[in-house]
Amino acid sequence: MIVPIEIRQPEFKRYDITIDTLPKLHYDRKVAIVTNTTVAPLHLARVMERLEAPQIEVIELPDGEEFKTMETVLSILDRLFEARYDRSSLLIALGGGVIGDMTGFASSLYQRGIGFVQMPTTLLSQVDASVGGKTGVNNRWGKNLVGAFYQPEAVYIDPAFLETLPEREYAAGIAEVVKMAVMFDRDFFDFLEKSDLKAPETAVEMIARSVSLKADVVNRDEKEAGVRAVLNYGHTFGHVIENETGYARYLHGEAVAIGMVMANELAVDLGQLSREEAERIRVLLEKWGLPTRYRVENPEAFYEHFFLDKKSRNNRIKFILPGGSIGSYVMRDDIPKAQVLKALERFRES
Amino acid sequence: MIVPIEIRQPEFKRYDITIDTLPKLHYDRKVAIVTNTTVAPLHLARVMERLEAPQIEVIELPDGEEFKTMETVLSILDRLFEARYDRSSLLIALGGGVIGDMTGFASSLYQRGIGFVQMPTTLLSQVDASVGGKTGVNNRWGKNLVGAFYQPEAVYIDPAFLETLPEREYAAGIAEVVKMAVMFDRDFFDFLEKSDLKAPETAVEMIARSVSLKADVVNRDEKEAGVRAVLNYGHTFGHVIENETGYARYLHGEAVAIGMVMANELAVDLGQLSREEAERIRVLLEKWGLPTRYRVENPEAFYEHFFLDKKSRNNRIKFILPGGSIGSYVMRDDIPKAQVLKALERFRES
């Protein structure tokens, strides 16, 4: 006998991303703010000032990707159990991507899921981690290998968070914004070229357009299987660069900037992008002080590195490239190795 | 600026529960079977015989609720990473509820979610854990306090699994079946009274009706907030009994059987159930050798124990009772303490 089971789910998970001065927040639930030792001195007072709840715990973690582990997440859960938090309690992630990923993951686990609110403080986490629901931790086998898909119930992006962000980290966030524009929205690319992205109003518009684009991609992924992979533009090359340099020399966004320039070289060779538009992208990245050069000592070795990435299955590398011009994309897994090596050769002396 | 985000989800998660001799299963993905030292000698050969996959790992855990911990789940993940399993890999849970809960949880975590298949070997896990998606582990603060909601992609219930199940465990599963019938389906209760539930065809029908009823409850919970709590009929009292007896004297289903009889005493007093129908329920449970008596030494202390349960918020205990007769339910949080003590008094000498 076969019993077909259909578990009904809400068709949408809805939440608002508020890009504005942090409003007064009144919760009738216990709240725990998860933050780190770098962010707390800068922004915790501002959040506490605006927050009302029957109980507020602050969980301050050490700062750094090396603490993005299951042990840290379990320590968050321990704190919540000790304070007798229940299923109606709420976590607030105050910090960058590492804090957001761990807080979201802890929220998904605690009593099989409690609410969480994101207050991303870096440009990168504002544009990237606010949408998509990816949470998780690293382990000795790699990054983000253990985690959950879990959506926040609200995201608050206070432009004041950005005032204390180092210039270099701001630029690293811009790299992901440029990625979205090159792949999906030519008009947005024009906007990025001509705007002062440090000016508060322009920053707000940039963030709003980025998160809308990303939400659109995440939703299309349902029907258009794999379109979410387009978000890896610049990342296929970038991951190898990060790996070759021991995750020490470049911020993630910086490696992605170089990776986009590399992908563009390949795209130009394949007729997927004009040389002129490749230059426009390079110039925009350099305007933000992002690196666009990287010395590939051994193209063959660089190529072999692609296969260590968890995204390359069946020995086929999926390259994400502009799809003819800025504002469109193509996914190709049929590019001959020689073609890729030819593009990498150009970075030998760079 | 406020950007509304809507993340689209499939409206249903669909899977089949096949209640029949285990079919031949061909997977073109790597498979890991998670089982324990009690179940493996009984059923592993049968499963291996019918299973084809490019790689099959067997992860054999120690048997027992005390191993239902995060450490055990992390050890499952470690084995998968060591064997280089990827996002397309599949876990098979071969065992009772503990194995199912941990395997489902591990599946939800590995690379943010891989497929899993349930092969529940106890009647309790067949009727209870096959539907609902609750996975997780215990910790020093309580049971199932860390976990995820995660659906299997298929459930296979081979009646042969039941042949080796001790009589007492079979009866404990029956208690949960009786619970479903008393709450939701009078006709099903009649069927249980008049059928030989050990006969294979009748067992198959009993399991099929139970899982269908549970799927219906889980889906109604969307609209009818909290109807899922009805599944706690017998559990509110049962948990206290399990706790008072150190989780040692009774199987969970046995404590639930006593709990239902206690709830029924309260229901009779409140006019929610006739004495005659309360007797029918008691007789059916006793026919299976299930306990229906328990000596409440101190009704006042028993009552206080309700408040240690994570389900009783705001100092109000929600009692799930028959709603006038067998086949219907009522949820009440307005029952005076004196009324409950009066019902408990009757168990002082039992």
Q: Can you describe what's shown?
A:
2 copies of one chain form a homodimer. The first copy, chain A, is an alpha/beta fold and 350 residues long. Chain A has helices spanning 39-50, 70-82, 97-109, 123-129, 160-163, 167-184, 186-194, 200-223, 235-244, 252-269, 275-287, 299-305, 337-345; strands at 2-8, 12-19, 25-26, 31-36, 51-52, 56-61, 90-95, 115-120, 134-139, 142-149, 154-157, 319-322, 329-332. In chain A, the strands form 4 sheets. A 6-stranded parallel sheet of chain A has the order 2-11-8-7-4-6, sandwiched between helices. The first copy, chain A, has a two-stranded parallel ribbon with strand order 3-5. A two-stranded antiparallel ribbon of chain A has the order 9-10. The termini of chain A are far apart. The model of chain A has no long low-confidence stretch (mean pLDDT 93). At the A-B interface, strand 1, strand 2, helix 2, strand 9 and strand 10 of A face strand 1, strand 2, helix 2, strand 9 and strand 10 of B. Strand 1 (2-8) of chain A pairs antiparallel with strand 2 (12-19) of chain B.
